[in-house]
Amino acid sequence: MVSTLVFALAANSSAQLWGSALTWNHRAVERQEVLNRIDMELLKRERALRVAAAAQVKSAREVGVEVPMSCVDAMAWMEGQLALVSSQLPEQITLASDSALTTAEEPVALWLRASGEGIERRRLFAPAAHGVCRL
């Protein structure tokens, strides 16, 4: 009788541990999928920005302009380019952007924050890095 009780308690405890391990594993897989979706969305924005920046620099060189725009104008241009791509977001992901300031209080970069299901990723986009302005 005692051995049956001990065996039943051990089996029950083992089943509970196994169930909680499966639940934890399932949550970890879901979290990784959300992170992958967020990273893919940020990479899509970066690729679109690189393509647009390359086209902008190429058109400026064809006209003979060495520096296409100031960095302040480039920030506005980058925000416009990223807004064009932001309309195609999946339902769970939201994007927000804010300017990164220098010591002179001029924006020289743009932080793009993507978040979904309580997870946030940030990526820094600098117009100088894409060749559309010079610091």
Report on the architecture of this protein.
The protein has helices spanning 2-63, 71-85, and strands at 94-101, 107-116, 119-125. 16% of the residues are buried. The chain is built from two helices and three strands; from the N terminus they run H-H-E-E-E. It is α+β, with helices and mostly antiparallel strands and 135 residues long. Strands 1-2-3 form a three-stranded antiparallel beta sheet.
What's this entry about, in short?
This protein has 135 residues and is an alpha+beta fold. 57% of the residues lie in helices and 19% in strands. It has two helices and three strands.
Q: Roughly what fraction of the amino acids lie in strands?
A: 15-25%
Give the structural class.
Answer: alpha+beta
Radius of gyration: 25 Å
The chain-level mean pLDDT equals 78
- Taken from the alpha-carbon principal axes, the silhouette is rod-shaped
Terminal residue distance: 82 Å
Multimer state: single chain
H/E series, N to C? HHEEE
Total number of helices: 2
Described by strand count, sense and barrel closure, the largest sheet is: 3 strands, antiparallel
Q: Helix share of residues?
A: 55-70%
Q: Strand sequence of the main sheet, in spatial order?
A: 1-2-3
Strands, total number: 3
The low-confidence parts are none
